[in-house]
C-alpha cells in the first residue's frame, strides 16, 4: 500500500483531528463532518492529503449499499456509509496533491460512489444534492487529471461529461451567483469545458448536452459570460471574473469550431444558432472592452485574443448579419485600442480582417443610421491612426472612406423623404421611385408593380411560378434579426445607385460574356457582391459553369425564384 494511504499518515494531522480520524476508522463516524470542515479551513488545506487514509477506507466499494434505490429505504448501516462517503468525497475533491501511483485507484472509488449517489438522489428527487455530488466528482477529477496518465482515463469514463455539464449548471444554480462559492467550483469545470477533447468524439458532446438540449447549454454559456462581466465591475472580484470569462469564451470558440469544417457536428451547429439568437456578439465586445480598460494582469492579452478570435468566427455565421451593424461602432473603438498597443500586435491580422471584410459587409445595412455612429467612432479614434502598423493604417483609411460614403448616402437617403425606395418588379419595366408609386402583389405580398399592366406582363413572364416560391422563402427565412423595412429600402437604393454608376461596365461585360460562351441566347446574370463593402460586379453566362452559378443553384428555392422571375 502506498505510504499516503497508510494509517501512519494520520500522525501528521493536528492532534484533535488525528484522534477523531482514528476513532472514525474503527468506530463511530459521527465526527466525520467536523473533521472535514476543520481541514477545509484555509490554514489546514495543505494538510488535506493526510486525511486520505480515512477517505480511502470510507470510499471502499464494499460499503456501497447493495439495495435497489428504486424500491428500498437504506438501512441505518447503509445510511451511515453514504453519509460518511459524502464527506470522504469532499476530502478527496479538495486534496490537490494526490500521488499519481494511487490516482487511478482513487478515481475508480470516486466514480463508483458517484454512480450510486446519482441514482439515489434522482430516485428521491433531490436535485440539489445531485448537483452537489456532480461538483464533488468534477473537483476530484480536476486534481487527479493533473497526472498525465489520468487524463484519458477520466475523460473516457462513460457518462463523465454528463456530470461536467451538471456541475457547470450548479456553478450558477447551487450558489445562485458566481459571487459566492462558484469561483473555486468553476475552475475544475472550466478544465473540461475549455478543452477540445470535449468535441473529440460525438459521444462526449452528446453526454455533455444530455437532456438539457443544445439551446439550454448555449444559454448557460451566455449566463456565465454575463455574470463574469458583472464580476469584472467589482475590483475585488475582477480577477475571478476574467478567469470565468476567458474559459466561457474558449468554450464558445470550441463549439463554433465543431460546427464548421471537418467536424460539422449537429449539436454544436444548433448551439451556435442559439447563440446567434441572443446577444453573444455584445457579450464578446463587452469582454474585449473590459479587458482593454480594466485589466492589467496576465489574463488581459489571452482574453482579448480569444474574444477577437470568437468574434471573427461568429461573423461568418450568416444569421448574425443584422446584429453586426449594431456593433460596428464598438468594433471601430476596439480596433483603435488594440491597434495602437505594441503588446497586441498579434491581433493585427484579425483587426485588418474586421476593417476589410466584416465591418464593411455590415455597411449595406446602415439604413438604420448606424453609419453616423460608425463615423463618430472613426472621428473619436482618429488620433490612434499614426500609431498603427502601415498595413493596419491602410485598412483603416480604406474603411474610413467607405464608411463616410455610406453614412452620407444614408443621410441623403433619409433627408429626401424617400425612405422606402422600390423598383417595379416587372423585369421589362425600369420605373424606380418611392414606395407610394407601387402596389403590392396580393398573392405573395413581396413584389411591387407600378401598374396593373406591368403585373399582368410579369405574371406571364415567370411570376405565376415565383409567387408561390416567394411565400415559401418568406416563411423559411431565419427569424433572427431579419433586415428591417428601412434597411431593405436602403440596400435597394444602394444597389440602384451602383447599377447606374456601373451600367456601361455591366453592358460591356454582358456582350463579352455572351461572345465567350458561344451561345448568345443562353442568357446571363449579374452578381453584385457587397461582402467587402464596395460592390464587386461580375457578369456570368448561364451556358458556362461558375462558382457563383453553383452557389445560386445550391440555394434551391431562391434559384428557382430567380429562374422563374427571369421570364422568357
From TrEMBL:
* Keyword Zinc-finger among record annotations: yes
Q: Which PROSITE patterns match?
A: ZF_MYND_2
Q: A single Pfam family, by name?
A: zf-MYND
For this UniProt entry, the molecular function terms from Gene Ontology, in alphabetical order, are:
zinc ion binding
- Cite the MYND-type domain residue spans from the record: 429-467
Q: Quote the InterPro entries the UniProt record gives.
A: Znf_MYND
Q: Keywords for this entry?
A: Metal-binding, Zinc, Zinc-finger
UniProt protein name? MYND-type domain-containing protein
**Organism name:** Roridomyces roridus
